[in-house]
Structure formats: C-alpha cells, structure tokens
Amino acid sequence: MELLIWLGAGISLTGLAGLIWCIVRVWQARRAGLSDADLRAAVQKVVPLNTGALFLSVIGLMLVVLGVVLG
Length: 71
Prior knowledge:
Layout: H1 2-31, H2 36-70
C-alpha cells in the first residue's frame, strides 16, 4: 500500500503544478492589459486545463487516502 500512497502523492503534486501553471497564465493575461474580450478568451482557454489539474489533484488525494486506509 505504500506504493499507492506515493503514486497518489505524485499524481496530486502533478495536479497542483497544473493549478499553479493555470494561475500564472491568468495572472500574466491580466497584467498584459488585454481588452475585456481578449482577457475572457485567454481565461476560457485555461478553464479546461484548470479543471483537469483539479481532477488530477483530487484523484491523487483519493489514492493517498485509500492507501492509508488499506495499509
């Protein structure tokens, strides 16, 4: 079960890195002084990636909890 915990932690950290990347992308778009429509388009491009990164984080944490409970 230790492998399950480490695998879950790695997946969760990958998701966390994706979330940080999404935050940085939106922050850069806001600082670029884009028009409202361009800023909205930039944010809309990031939303699916943000959702996927959040999904990875949740799955990773679920694996960690499962490994702890089973181990």
